Automatic annotation (TrEMBL):
All copies of domain Methylated-DNA-[protein]-cysteine S-methyltransferase DNA binding, residue ranges: 67-150
Protein keywords: Cytoplasm, DNA damage, DNA repair, Methyltransferase, Transferase
InterPro entries linked: MethylDNA_cys_MeTrfase_AS, MethylDNA_cys_MeTrfase_DNA-bd, MethylDNA_cys_MeTrfase_DNAb, MethylG_MeTrfase_N, MGMT, MGMT_N_sf, WH-like_DNA-bd_sf
Any one GO cellular component localisation term in the record: cytoplasm
Annotated function: Involved in the cellular defense against the biological effects of O6-methylguanine (O6-MeG) and O4-methylthymine (O4-MeT) in DNA. Repairs the methylated nucleobase in DNA by stoichiometrically transferring the methyl group to a cysteine residue in the enzyme. This is a suicide reaction: the enzyme is irreversibly inactivated.
Enzyme class: transferase
Protein name as catalogued: Methylated-DNA--protein-cysteine methyltransferase
Family: Belongs to the MGMT family.
Species of provenance: Halocynthiibacter styelae
Catalytic activity line of the entry: a 6-O-methyl-2'-deoxyguanosine in DNA + L-cysteinyl-[protein] = S-methyl-L-cysteinyl-[protein] + a 2'-deoxyguanosine in DNA; a 4-O-methyl-thymidine in DNA + L-cysteinyl-[protein] = a thymidine in DNA + S-methyl-L-cysteinyl-[protein]
Amino acid sequence: MNIGTTETPIGRLGLVEKDGMIMQLLWNADPVGEETAVLREGARQLQAYFNHELTKFDLPLWVEGSNFQRAVCDYMFAIPFGETVTYGDIAKATETPAQAVGNACGANPIPVIIPCHRVLSATGLGGFSGAGGGLNGIEMKVTLLKHEGAAGLLI
């Protein structure tokens, strides 16, 4: 396992790579192991995202977890830059309760790249498990949504 890091406007982000796949994004991480081509490309794409030069990541990703967890992550990955959906939308698409979808979103191991910040509750922002750079989870979600120009009526 290798961890590569990059400084971003939301703090130092770390990408965990194993067997050529990005497995996790960490907040305030320190580098570990060797800097692989996948980690360099991940850092480059994160920089491009924050510089408004990239709207969709193209990296080899692997989500550890159940088939349901991977299905929710696949759905989130397909949400376009600057757009949002609700937990209920994903629940309908996966034919599961919205609470299960919320739990799967909260367990997303690769936030930002798999954009769980683009998933809102029916009545507001919902939650967000990522925190870093001095921001709590909800502040981080708002920061990412503002970066993308999404959910303007809510934030």
